[in-house]
Amino acid sequence: MKIINYFIGLCFLGISWLGILPVQAQSIYIADSLFAVIDTQQLLHVKQLSQFFRRFNLQEDLYGNPLVSTDSTQYHQNFMKDLLKRGWIDRETLQLPNEQQLIIQRKLLIYSLFDWSGTDAFGVPLVNDFIELVANENCPIKISAFDTDWYAELNCQVVYKGEEKDLQLVMKKEVYPDQSSKWVMMSAYADFLTAYTPSKKIDKYIDPVSHETNFISLKRVFSNPAYLTNYRADDYKPDHLTILFELIRSAELQYNYVKQLKFHFLQIPGWVFTVERIEDSNRISGWLISNLIRSNHQYKHLYRKNNLHLQ
């Protein structure tokens, strides 16, 4: 239970460090017995990524109840009363203006979305800076599935030449003006793709005197796509995604399943964070923030290139 107590302690102690409460309302009730009355599995389990989005944006509470409705004020009031009941805030906080109460709620919800179960847990000052930015009273930042700069990293198992291989696929949502969208492949990476060399038939080539015949032999190239790799230069280096498509087309590669899934969020100015499904033995589980990095424009460019293999 040590890790869970560590999380609970950070979560409650971090409230004052995060600047959630004003000076006159920083009385937080912290006791070991508090853990006994909080169902941490219910509080922290984020079943779907869409639920992560909603909690991050203050659209649902810790129990999955909606905070956006025709009677959203009543929902928020009930949420604050529940936080008081469980010792997360004191009574003075309930007397604050609604706008400040909303900020408190959002900071607490975002704080609960971090994976604190590892030995290398996040530093509170780093998380504090991040939350202060996204939950800023004057210019709050929310995330959306329609954002352009977030990616899914899929660690897939495939079969190539009769052997099971690992394949990294990076995908993103392509969004259209009517708000429809679809997932598309952006990059691929695997050791076997690096070593791939296409086979060529000796008798399939463009005649060396084709320049004298107005390259009439190109008709053969376009009419018989099975041997397209014969017609490209030996020093041509296609990217891994192009090679992957060729292997799929030629049925040389078979897909098994996705072994692991990770999401990379780069749309928030000055920050990069990843979200993974955490299945911890101490019941801190679901889609949680697994890494948080302070970044600038140049770092994000390198991150896309080195981590996501994007050009």
Discrete helix count: 10
Question: What is the molecular shape?
Answer: elongated
Helix coverage percent of residues?
25-40%
The helix-strand sequence is: HHHHHHEEEHHHEEEH
Widest β-sheet, arrangement of strands = 3-2-1-4-5-6
Biggest sheet: strands, sense, closure?
6 strands, antiparallel
Q: pLDDT under 50 segments (min length 5)?
A: 1-41
Radius of gyration: 26 Å
Strand content: 15-25%
Could you give the count of β-strands? 6
Distance between the termini: 45 Å
Summed up, the domain count is 2
Coarse structural class = alpha+beta
Mean pLDDT: 81
Characterization of this structure:
The protein has 311 residues and is an alpha+beta fold. The chain folds into two domains: 2-143, no CATH class; 150-260, no CATH class. The chain has ten helices and six strands. The protein has helices spanning 2-17, 40-44, 49-56, 72-85, 98-111, 124-134, 191-194, 218-223, 240-249, 297-307, and strands at residues 150-160, 163-175, 181-189, 253-265, 271-279, 285-294. The protein has a six-stranded antiparallel beta sheet with strand order 3-2-1-4-5-6.
Briefly, what is this?
It is built from 10 helices and 6 strands; from the N terminus they run ααααααβββαααβββα. The protein has helices at residues 2-17, 40-44, 49-56, 72-85, 98-111, 124-134, 191-194, 218-223, 240-249, 297-307, and strands spanning 150-160, 163-175, 181-189, 253-265, 271-279, 285-294. 22% of the residues are buried.
Strand and helix layout:
Layout: H1 2-17, H2 40-44, H3 49-56, H4 72-85, H5 98-111, H6 124-134, E1 150-160, E2 163-175, E3 181-189, H7 191-194, H8 218-223, H9 240-249, E4 253-265, E5 271-279, E6 285-294, H10 297-307
Antiparallel strand pairs: 1-2, 1-4, 2-3, 4-5, 5-6
